[in-house]
## 1
Amino acid sequence: MTGYVNGNVEKPNKYFDRKDKRDFLYHFGFGVDTIDIPAIFGDTKYVCTGGSPGRFKLYAEWFAKETNIKCSENLSRSDRFVIYKTGPVCWINHGMGTPSLSIMLVESFKLMHHAGVKNPTFIRLGTSGGVGVPPGTVVVSTGAVNSELSETYVQVIAGKRIERPTQLDSTLREALCAVGKEKNIPVETGKTLCADDFYEGQMRLDGYFCDYEEESKFDFLRKLNTLGVRNIEMESTCFASFTCRAGFASAIVCVTLLNRMDGDQVQIPKEQYIEYEERPFRLVTAYIRQQTGI
Ligand SMILES: O=P(O)(O)O[C@@H]1C[C@H](O)[C@@H](CO)O1
Ligand SMILES: O=c1cc[nH]c(=O)[nH]1
């Protein structure tokens, strides 16, 4: 796969089709027996994802309006995630943090498998805290760093620590950055820190608990900046690792809501917030339209 250092794509689980032909995607609320997955999802080329269900409904509706393609109803049959489809693009929210994201990704990968989709591209469109970049910057991630500042995603399986690489597709990243430039969207590239929580894990001073000093927060942010980290969110290592393992091209495109060097509270006027939220959408939509001609 282009741009990947790790060329070893992992085959899907050997027990998956052999033993369980009647696979049910529990958190999507449907399975191979309950809906015609190939008919509904078989033409998917892009899976766009991000945390909030409301934002992803909005993105799907905006995309439908812009391309004159019909937006599906919410295809999810559970209240855990929403799934909208606009032609070749699926819009699925993933909740907050890697545990929720990992469930959504596994079920999305199985969904694509059952639908017969060969090489879907996965793009995370999200929000983040900037590290030395002005609010409103769209960071297209060059890599994902975990809370111990290593470029791996750690899973604990059967009591053992397993570390997996977190590479992202460089060709896709470069193409997204080029579109951003063309559209006059403020784009930066850099590493993304995947924190385990929003408050202490991101060294905020505005949580309920705080047993470190202000100076340590700034030392940490400066250290991140020196390591090439430009933003902080809570999903990038898992997203990069899972998509890389499956051999799917993927990218992370997150707008920064604030510069963490200047503060911790996210308090943005509504209009400004919507404009920021729109930036990753505008960039990714322009890219998808360029690639598909829709
Ligand atoms: O994609 P979103 O904007 O939901 O992701 C970031 C990271 C956390 O999940 C959440 C914290 O506010 O926002
Ligand atoms: O500061 C921020 C903003 C959004 N999401 C995060 O995880 N951190």
## 2
Amino acid sequence: CTDKEDPKKGKEKRGTSKEVCGYPLSIFFIVVNEFCERFSYYGMRAVLVLYFKYFLRWDDDLATSIYHTFVALCYLTPILGAIVADSWLGKFKTIIYLSIVYAIGQVAMAVSAIHDITDTDRDGTPDNMTFHVVLSMVGLFLIALGTGGIKPCVAAFGGDQFSDHQDRQRRTFFSVFYLCINGGSLLSTIITPILRAQDCGIHSQQKCYSLAFGVPAALMLVALVVFIVGSGMYYKAEPQGNIMLDVCKCIGFAIKNRYRHRSNQYPKRQHWMDWAEEKYDKLLIAQIKMVLKVLFLYIPLPMFWTLFDQKGSRWTLQATTMNGYFGSLVIQPDQMQTVNPILILTLVPIMDSVIYPLINKCGLNFTPLKRMTVGMLLAAIAFVCAALVQIEIDKTLPTFPSTSQSQLKLLNMGSETVTIKMPGNDPLNLTAAQASNEYFTFEAGQINISVGHPEVRNTISLAKGQRQTLLIPLTITDEWLMTDDITSKPQEGNNAIRFVNGMKTAVNVSIPAANFGLIEPFSYSNYSLIKNGKVTFTLWSGSQSCEYSTDFGFGSSYTFFIPSTLVFGPNCQESITAAEDIKPNSVHMALQIPQYFFITAGEVMFSVTGLEFSYSQAPSNMKAVLQAGWLFTVAIGNFIVLIVAELAKLPKQWAEYVLFASLLVAVCFIFSIMAYFYTYIDPAEIEAQFKKNVNEDDEDNKHKLQKTEVEMNKRDSIKCHDEDDKDKQTKM
Ligand SMILES: CC(C)C[C@H](NC(=O)[C@@H](N)Cc1ccccc1)C(=O)O
């Protein structure tokens, strides 16, 4: 707890807060507030898409676009919150009012997810979907307003609690603040999906979205209460009028004035903002210059967020094509995202207490802008890692037919080996109940196939761009059956399973999670999606049953064949055969850890530093505005994801990753040049200088005024004397 700060700096204490180890106690309430708020935000966000999809019954496209619109809105509203805070209510009141709005929004979301409210027929599904949609949209709007509105204020308000001489403590505060963000988000992204998976309801049991939204709502109320409890200890900087309006007017005037004096006859000024000097205060002009300098530096930054925010989309999709078995633990694709906050919680302390001090000791001046540049490069490396992983995954993915091709698999439903001849292929022998290992690809729309001995010939039509299976019947002279097979890898790590019944009687197949229905003789079921893990199928034929168990990985597709020779009994394990239509994911999810490591190390260097940089380089009356500017780069970054992904439309995912990495390296190069020319400032010192000059000017003016007054008084008194004399003279 030693304080080795610049002794020249002012030591005045801010607020009435006690100090613990040189830190104002008030920041404890601020970091706890942030922890609860981030829990609330990320907890709700974790289940939002699933709520859209499974509760509101929206399709994937609508669910994804509303989700991204919501996230973008959350990073656009900080501007609104910052303007209100810096120019009207002050940060403290803005945080209180917007937190109330935020909590109302979260409660609205929780209520909108209670299906019983409109489930009049008690069948478990809401009967008035409009009510749920409208309430949840109002809720999301309020949440976006609340979370975005308070975001720049809370960070800046925390920074305000430190005196000018507490630079080191303030830097540590921003690191701890970041840890709280990630502690809260880590816990909630683990907890709310568990809550969602519970069944709840009054009349009927459904997935418990109301609880998954209700707990974040409760945490938001806790955040509000904690923040209010600390009220007496905060340093509350007064808002300084409608600063944004003044800034806009001042910039507008400078531009107009510059244009009016564009002719060469007018002497040039050092900075174009100096053209506002005729009308505006020099301090305001200096403050605007500081803000503009930082905002200019922000221009390349959205590209970092463009890569960073793909963790939640592209990388999660990548994880769905990977194997999530970690020993006995199974990691779901969306759970991989929790690697980010876990790494943040370990990397921030390591960076702060080991890496940065070590770099300092080596005599290197690792300035904030250098850190941010390195952070960008690390994010680019993360995307190169993602591309390498993608190349590995692509090697294991099935080759689906192009639009001009057809693919065919063969399944021998008979009890004897058959030989099959197809154009362009060697004769194929299939034993009883056996399927071909692979799909055969054909360019032609029709092919001649001959089966068995004596040969039975058939011309079969193939569907372009499709995968099909030819079911060769028990008696090959019977009608041949063609099935339409799955032509994409099952999503979200699911497995697509179907059954072919080769028996002469109908068979019913079921598992607790799905029912394949009654499968007629020599017929097949539709696909059912099944999660990974061990599954036991129960097969029923009349009153007879038997069980068949098997283990599933992630993203596979199987056709199970029930042969005509199946004997029902306690166990039909040996009789049923499985044809692997799509192999399970084989590239392990652990291979994503390097890319998560690099992006998170990049985040620590870029985001934690940027947060503090935005605070320290902002003039006192525009701290929240610059925080909002910083968050605005996140919103732009999210829009770039949509634009680049839409425009580039690269056929290979790994190429898209390389494209993003290259774009970031290019942007990083530009940023490093801009950063090279940036000179760090101490806004408080500059402002103090201006105030001193103004005071000195005032003193001068006062002196001049006093002198003038004295002279005037002298003159007046002479005049009076004269007049008195005159009077006297007259009177006398
Ligand atoms: C983008 C924000 C400015 C930064 C910050 N986000 C984080 O710190 C993320 N590491 C949190 C996270 C948690 C779980 C999954 C993905 C990301 C914030 O939210 O303020």
